[in-house]
């Protein structure tokens, strides 16, 4: 058993199983709504795009595992990049990660809207009110002990896993599933598959939640790789089975024209009760996504404050060891983006996610290679073998994600990205100004094993 508190004050209460469920919970969202976009890209062959993506992303997961075990601090990627490439690059990584987390919030409303629409008609305003109510309720939960939230998320996640796999097996064995329906697998050929490999990276944004929570982990840091691999494995299993199950019952054209896929397939199979159960489960996946990204966003703000990149108010913890001010800001941003995000948001979220994720992953990979050169003496409880080879592999993968995502961006996506970059430059300028006007509170700090020591990695 470890000391209950990390040197920063965050409580070490998360077991390995909690880490897996929280990361996978962030990745596994309401696929029964989004699966139509996957079929639009690559038809039933999107299952192979998902498998390919998982294989390509594994080296990145192992890179994250080494960096997390070496620097298991809230703030994760921001801290790694700051150590390797400097504080300005670290700030850029922090800002792009925040974009990933913030953009997840409107998908909660979109997912809930589609789920509720299966049961009864619901207006856009009602959806946003419901989503805002859920966010407010979740704000109070995030300020309790993290183990309470972790336990609730575990219940929702394992329920999702069991129900989704059972439903998929039922679809396949229902007598409605035919191999002739699922073929041809690739409706847009190799180009569709290649595009899906780049754009579907959004569905794997979630494993990078682990670094944000690593400071609160209560198991040996050398085992962090199991959380990365376990969460990726669960995600591929759920998504892959879903594509195969519905792809053999209904055509790609049918999928493109429906609102919510899996429950409608359940109706075709004559089991409306299963459709209702899937809707309830799908709503749960929206909540686990909200929870995972919320926790990560508050920790990335907490880590940035520890490095004096934002106000020190974000470092304040309540009696439960939670960053209360950071949680408040994340809650406000969540409500704002959920209520005011345009309905077309979901149409270009994949491309923006791809650009932001590709940029962050590229910075992390370069930092991984650079840190090995600069600080070979730092202890690495988990060390990736053939690190240079996998680093180059990961860099190539990141460039592919960036290329495909940028190529697919439309005007609306460019506007959103440009506004966000301008806001980032303004906050970066404010940080620089405060470092000059109030050097005592804003003096640049880079958290590292040299400044923190190994307190977060000691097991008694």
Number of alpha- plus pi-helical segments: 20
The structural class is mainly alpha
Biggest pleated-sheet summary: none
CATH classification, class level = Mainly Alpha
What's the CATH H-level superfamily name? Answer: Amino acid/polyamine transporter I
CATH topology: Amino acid/polyamine transporter I
Globally, the shape reads globular
CATH architecture term: Up-down Bundle
Mean pLDDT: 86
| Gap from first CA to last CA | 6 Å
- Extract low-pLDDT stretches: 454-460
Q: Secondary-structure element sequence?
A: HHHHHHHHHHHHHHHHHHHH
Which percent range describes the beta-strand content?
Answer: under 5%
Helix content: over 70%
Total beta strands: 0
| Gyration radius over CA | 21 Å
How many domains comprise the coordinates?
A: 1
Describe this structure in words.
The protein is globular, with a radius of gyration of 21 Å. The chain starts with 15 loop residues before the first helix and ends in an 8-residue tail after the last helix. The chain has one domain (16-457): Amino acid/polyamine transporter I, CATH 1.20.1740.10. The protein has helices spanning 16-27, 31-42, 46-70, 77-85, 87-119, 124-142, 146-173, 179-182, 189-199, 209-213, 224-247, 252-257, 261-268, 272-306, 324-340, 345-374, 387-408, 411-437, 439-442, 449-452. The model is unreliable at 454-460 (pLDDT under 50). With 460 residues, it is mostly helical.
